[in-house]
Amino acid sequence: MKLAMIGTGYVGLVSGVCFADFGFHVTCVDKNPSIIDRLKAGKATIYEPGLDELMARNIRDGRLEFTTDLAASVADADVIFIAVGTPSRRGDGEADLQYIEAAADEIAAAMKPGAVVVIKSTVVVGTNARIRDRIAAARPGVPFSMVSNPEFLREGSAIEDFLRPDRVVVGVEDERGKAAMQRVYRPLYLRETPLVITTLENAELIKYAANAFLAMKVTFINEVADLCEKTGGNVQEVARAIGMDKRIGSKFLHAGPGFGGSCFPKDTRAFAATGKRYGARQTLIEQVIEVNEARKQAMAERIVSAARESSTDTVAILGIAFKPNTDDIRESPALDIVPAVQKAGLTVRAHDPEAMEAAKAALPGVVWCNSAYEAATGAGVVALLTEWNAYRALDLKRLASLMNGNVLIDLRNVYKGEDLEGTGLDYRGVGRSLK
Ligand code: UDX
């Protein structure tokens, strides 16, 4: 069985490499020749733990290829996955489907009869049916099957998530599409991963509802953290105990600077926009978006007022990526927080283990540093924004000795009381006080 994967972003590259590892022949396609050259040389274009090794093995064994030639890769493919981006459209927050439509047109022109076309990109309800009609109109009389197969992998643990998902969701319309999906996911099936077989529309709705719910969970605990701060509570203890209720569940209850990334912000906006369009407002999610935006500004204000109290003009920011183990800065809280801090007249010194290259263009005026310690040097306030492992065991005495001030704002609640002993740091976590 031959697979073609259109788009080599997070979802496309990780899925393509993992399907090759399942034993299928996979051709990954991207329009950008420099991306393809890099991938051909066995170098992943994204930072994802374990990906380089998996790529190398499958390239060596001849199961994984890369090309810019979409038509050639699609011509003999049995299953064609579309994994191109669906960014937010400016203005109305709707998902921009131009890349999906362009890919569908090229696939329609080149696919063989009986091909199975699978949309893996996150697309709003109704898109799969529209794309099906578009392909059918371009190739009248040529049989093919449409499948919706949303992907739930997280950056930073993408391979693990692909190989051990809680469930695989596939929306199908016919037996051919269903059989193809059962075959490509057979290795997971054998590990008893549930394969949820449903309609195209349900599959689309499941993906958005899942991400919207998770974003809501994060936003909920962030507001609880605010209340904990005002009342002497501890959000970690509250989260732990409410999470023991299986109806609530323990995951996604870490308070922080607000959610970011390539999915939650754009997917919540698209979900809200879809609700408006159909006259079924998702008011809860509209509110989640608003609360999350306000939170990022509130975090910036926290840093600025700490700097004012300390009479410092320099702040160190540790972590720019929206979460650890990725170099992705898309909609990272840091992209709102850093400019707001600069706007208050403060100098920002920053470090991130993987995201500095990406961040340089996005955050002008920042003094980029080679380590957390270098960033902290001369700063009156240090703010930890991303919970990289490298920031979990900092030598806080050393950090404090390099600073010109003593406030540590830990927006990820990485440190505990005993870590602070003897450091002289004025520690400020989220939703808890260590005093
Ligand atoms: C998310 C979904 O988890 C995944 O299923 C979907 O396919 C894509 O979107 P990802 O964006 O990679 O994955 O990151 P995730 O780990 O879910 O974190 C999203 C954001 O929420 C990050 O900014 C993270 O810092 C924040 N977050 C998450 C919290 O602040 N607290 C939490 O408890 C969990």
From TrEMBL:
EC number: 1.1.1.22
Keyword list, A-Z: NAD, Oxidoreductase
Catalytic reactions of this protein: UDP-alpha-D-glucose + 2 NAD(+) + H2O = UDP-alpha-D-glucuronate + 2 NADH + 3 H(+)
Single Gene Ontology MF annotation: oxidoreductase activity
Pfam families: UDPG_MGDP_dh (PF00984), UDPG_MGDP_dh_C (PF03720), UDPG_MGDP_dh_N (PF03721)
UniProt feature coiled coil, ranges: none
TM spans (from-to): none
Pathway: Nucleotide-sugar biosynthesis; UDP-alpha-D-glucuronate biosynthesis; UDP-alpha-D-glucuronate from UDP-alpha-D-glucose: step 1/1
Annotated ranges, domain UDP-glucose/GDP-mannose dehydrogenase C-terminal: 316-417
Record-stated family: Belongs to the UDP-glucose/GDP-mannose dehydrogenase family.
Name this polypeptide is given: UDP-glucose 6-dehydrogenase
